[in-house]
Amino acid sequence: MEDVEGVRFIRADITRPGIEAKVAAFLNEIGRPRFGAIISDAMSRTTGHHELDHSSSYMIGESVMHLCQPFLATNGNVLVKQFQGDMTPGFKRKWEGDFAFSKIVKPRASRGTSSEVYILFKGYRRLVV
User: Fold this and answer.
1) Domain-wise residue ranges, the chain
2) Does pLDDT of 51 surpass 90?
3) What is the DSSP string of the chain?
4) If one looks up domain 34-124 in CATH, what number appears?
């Protein structure tokens, strides 16, 4: 990804062990305890097989959402890209209880034939453990 002024990127496979340590080190480096938002446009290479591409995007989304507990601030927001399919409603239901608001959004820039959607979660309700 090209550099963007004022933006820092963590280039890593979010589904692999060790991502939490990289994110924690990054937060420590910038002197912040948590993020106000997590935005994921991540996607694996598409195969052209809808079920496989949907499943892959679901797994990436799960990995993104698992970063909320340790790294998302109370009232924080998450935006996750997914190829819409049969697991999308369950994904939204699974995580929406941790947030004040959730919605599936189809961007105008996305081709009409594309199954690409974004799932927006707003107002993270931090769990106290």
Assistant:
1) 34-124
2) no
3) ----TT-----S-TTSTTHHHHHHHHHHHHT-SSEEEEEE---PPP-S-HHHHHHHHHHHHHHHHHTHHHHEEEEEEEEEEEE-STTHHHHHHHHHTTEEEEEEE--TTS-TT--EEEEEEEEE-PPP-
4) 3.40.50.150
